[in-house]
Amino acid sequence: MGIVGSSPTLVIIFSPLTLVHVMVAIYLEYFGRPMGLWRTSAKLAHTLLEVCFICAWSAAFSLCFDNFFTSLIPCASAGSIAWYNELSRPELTLPNLGRNKGGVGDTLCDYQLALICLVGVGLVTYCINIVISLFRIFEKVKSYAGFRPTMPF
């Protein structure tokens, strides 16, 4: 427990919140007005919430990498972390936890690598989504900027 680090726990905390956010967005998109027709303030609030999720998943992504490179299990070779870390790894106190082919440590390292990939894909999709949301906001603001009401003087 905790031998890899805290990244799996953090992902377990963020995942339900993300699922709720995505399900609400899908519900609003299909059963409400499309996001392209939302008021600008509502779009900005939704985009700000997406920025919060991007920050959370960025933190999880960096923690996943940190746990992969600095965990007690030697997932990464000592040479790959020597350029920034001059501290040696602590000694393993549990038997059979090393990076033996097919061992427990090898499986945990593979799971941590899969977690890095999963969080990375989620982060990329959130970034693509925010680009689309910002494009919608800019298009709406641009269309309002071209509108000049005439004054009846």
TrEMBL record:
Transmembrane regions listed in the UniProt entry: 12-32, 44-63, 113-138
One Gene Ontology cellular component: cell periphery
Swiss-Prot/TrEMBL keywords: Membrane, Transmembrane, Transmembrane helix
Matching InterPro entries: Srf1
Statement: the UniProt record of this protein carries the keyword RNA-binding: no
Protein name in UniProt: Uncharacterized protein
